[in-house]
Amino acid sequence: MNGPAAVVQLAGIVLAPLLPGAIQTLKARLQGRRGASVLQPYRTLWRLWHKSAVDPQGAGVIYRGAPPLVAACLLAGLAIVPVAGRAGSFGLGNDALVLVGVLALARFVLAAASWETGNGFALMASARELMISVFGEALLVFAVLIAALPAHSTDLLAMSHAAAGGHIWSGPTHWCGVIAFALVILVETGRQPIDNPDTHLELTMIHEGPLLEYAGRDLALLQWAGAARHWVILVLGAGLYLPHWGGFAATLGLRLAGVGVLCGALALIETEQAKMRILRVPALLGVGCAIALAGAAMWIGGVGI
Amino acid sequence: MERAAGSLDLDHLGGLLRRMPWTGGAFLVGCMAIAGLPPLNGFASEWLVLQSLLHVALHQPLGIALAGAAALAGLAATAALALLCFVKVVGLVLLGQPRRAECAAAVDPPPGMLVGMTLLALMCIALGLVPGLVLPTLAGLAPGASGATLARHAGMVVPGTGSYLPLPLALALAALTAALLGVRGRRRSAPAPSWACGQPVVAALSWSSAGFTKPLRLVLEAVFRPRREIEVVRGGGMVQSVTYTGHVPSLLDASVYEPTVRAGLRAASAARRLQSGNVRTYAGYLLGLVIGLLVLVYTGVLG
Amino acid sequence: MNGVLVTAMLALALAVIVVRRRTVAIVLLAAQSLALGILAVSLAGGAVVAIVLLSKAIVLPALLYLLIRRTREARPVAAPAGPMVRLAAAGAVALCAVVLTPPLGLGAAHTEHIAVALVLVGITIVIARRPILFQLLGLIVAENGLSLLAVSVPGGLSYVIDLGALFDLALIVTVAAAFAQRIHSDLGTGDTELLRGLRD
User: Who has greater pLDDT, A298 or B226?
Assistant: First the structure.
């Protein structure tokens, strides 16, 4: 019973780079260019895998150990997030807050690695990313709360089941949850208006900064980790906030289609929005928190259940 | 570290992990535990507190539930703040280039001093890996705990959550990291200078703690109202020295504690006028009190 | 007969406030303790009670008399107000106690009221008279009031309580006597109006 679900979760390892590739292609088409193919990230990973790495001055254990550890954290995250309402029993549980913790571990390790080399751009980017994460974590936890309200549990499986069917959309709470989770997706994937993933200017980098000092296989692992972050958060969003019905196969098909829709939405948002002033981002996230709190209040107060 | 490096000022340490591996390692474990990272014990406690606040928001009536939700978000934000703070501490103290000569020459202290630290770090790790063994005992101590006890597992299998299993998580992380290290293979690497837009990297370019927290300070300026003074001394048309002093006043101290303390002291000095020094006056107060209480009882005001 | 004894105790306490000479006050206190002893013996009986109360009637006043002999006042200590005013004040306090005391459920209502009145009059003695001895006497009068309450409990209280209270009182009186001698030798008089150090 859990076999197919486990297979799909593990397939995420291979399918994850497809998502940033799809978003880039869609963005290019929307901007009137042809753009790279959807499989471009795979080619980039292949190319990076065959290049040599660098040893910046001051590189030590943490610098060399960070990319595998970050990738391992994201792999654990892949195992925790259920797909299509089922999860293979990898023995890690399916708790939403554990997922938040694992992502925080990845963030810590990467920031520590940027301190080790002392690269100014990496540190600046880490400082900004951690500052945004202060508000992003509050927003993420609010989104988890809203998803947990119908399920009375933080188990991601229970949340998926509670979000099944159409009745949950009749009240305003789930819509508030959608808005909050949309902002969470933008924060976690590092897309505009919060961060520009296409930037080459080091002074404007936020989540790309710590990657500046890496090359070769290390950089390949970190790029894969970025793609896996996309997969984790988009699959989670599709599972909680896109309606679904039917058995496992039908739900799976709907989920994957939903992930595709979300990629399209991300491409649209990126094309439409310009990058926001970084000091204004907490205000945006604060608005998201307020909307989420209002949604939770309405559910608890009994409005529209 | 103070013994080895001679100073505890964050901006004057650096590079101690390589020179004092045991101390640095224990320090790193401690910082990661405080920052609430899995699979250490800090995350286990934080997970429990977050879960309890979330369940307050799930099961209690409206007002309390909203307070619980606000507290939940506040705690999550605090956890991220702790992560920022301790990444900064780890980076400034353990990593990077040493900022003083004493740091470059630092060595691990004698084993007597290492034993305590290492023991505590091991306890952090041990408690983080099997928190479920302690959990039923703690749950039984809580006020209002019913007779039902939690089953004793190694991980934390709590009803109403998706269960946090740190031991499998730690093993998975370790195994996956080792596997990826193996897949990465022999690391062919070339030495290269750190990228600073082509400039040579000198010690003056290394980051300080004020720099790392600047985005946060700018965002929270309206709340904290930090005070900064920058003094630029010029001589002969050129800048000779720049002195920066920054200070974040504690809002709670200034607006809550100090007025309360002042009011309390004022009330105490007003009450001092009651002290005449003579024991008969105090006996008089006692008599007045007793008769007053009797009157209150008689008139039925008191039980 | 019991009612008479009880009222007599109150009257003796009021008299302690009025009298000028310390010796007379001690005699009055001894009489009060004796009355309490007779009352106790007639109500509850028992050898222990008798011993306790006899010691209160004889031993303590003897101790206090020794104290007076050692601390002779050179000049008479003036009272804060005249004897009539003191009596009126004490009488008012006793009246308050008698009227306001709620039923405590420990014995006859009359005895309860008088007991509380004794306690309050004892505190009044502490306030109204200045020599140290009278403060001690006020304390003993108050303690007599509590003993009256204890004695009037139907069935009597355990003799351990009585012995404990006696021990307590003996300790207080001994310590206070020692202090009184010390104050007298330091200041030359036992006037508590001169003692103003009990402050911050």
Answer: A298
Average pLDDT over chain A, rounded to an integer: 89
Among candidate residues C161, C164, C159, C169, the one with its CA nearest the CA of residue C48: C159
Radius of gyration (Cα) for chain A, nearest Å?
19
Q: For residues C151 and C39, is the Cβ–Cβ distance under 8 A?
A: yes
Strand partners, B244: B230
Cis-peptide into A197, omega within 30 deg: no
The string of pLDDT tens digits covering residues C17-75 is 888 888 888 999 999 988 888 888 787 667 777 777 778 888 888 888 888 888 887 77
3-state secondary structure A22-55: HHHHHHHHHCCCCCCCCCHHHHHHHHHHCCCEEE
B97–A158 C-beta distance less than 8 A: no
Chain A residues within an 8 Å CB radius of B219? 131, 279, 282
Does the pLDDT value for residue B175 go beyond 70?
Answer: yes
Q: Which chain A residues are within 8 Å of B187, Cβ to Cβ? A: 53, 64, 216-218
Neighbors of chain C with 3 or more C-beta pairs under 8 Å: B
CB pairs under 8 A between B and C: 55
How large a percentage of chain C has pLDDT more than 70?
Answer: 98
Question: Does pLDDT of B263 surpass 90?
Answer: yes
Nearest CA in chain B to C196: B277
Contact yes or no, B with C (3+ CB pairs under 8 Å): yes
CA–CA min distance B183, chain A (Å): 10
Task: Please answer whether residues B33 and B40 qualify as being in contact, where contact means their C-beta atoms are separated by less than 8 angstroms.
Answer: yes
Ordered alpha helix ranges (H), chain B: 2-5, 16-19, 21-34, 41-59, 62-94, 101-104, 111-129, 135-141, 166-184, 209-212, 214-219, 221-224, 251-252, 258-271, 279-299
- Residue contact B83–A212, C-beta within 8 A: no
Q: Rounded distance, CA C9 to CA B128, Å?
A: 74
Q: What angle do CA B6, B12, B13 make, to 5 degrees?
A: 75
Q: Of B272, B290, B298, which has the smallest distance from its Cβ to C120's Cβ?
A: B290
How far is the CA of B18 from the CAs of A110, A257, B21, B162, B174, in angstroms? 18, 49, 6, 39, 22
For the record, the structure tokens of A141 come out as 């936890």
Q: What is the pLDDT of residues B82-100, one digit of tens each?
A: 999 999 999 998 888 777 7
C-alpha span between B293 and B288 (Å, rounded): 9
Of B275, B279, B298, the CB nearest to C100: B298
- Among A96, A137, A301, select the one facing B77 at the smallest CB separation: A137
Q: Label residue A247 by pLDDT band (50, 70, 90).
A: confident
Residues of B in contact with C102 (CB under 8 A): 297-298
CA distance B283 to chain C (A): 6
Pure H helices in C44-82: 47-70
Contact A70, B207 (CB under 8 A): no
Neighbouring chains to B with at least 3 Cβ pairs closer than 8 Å: A, C
User: Can the peptide bond before residue B136 be classed as cis, meaning omega within 30 degrees of 0?
Assistant: no
Within 8 A of B197 by CB-CB distance, chain A residues are 202
ipTM of the complex: 0.91
Determine the pLDDT at residue A39: 93
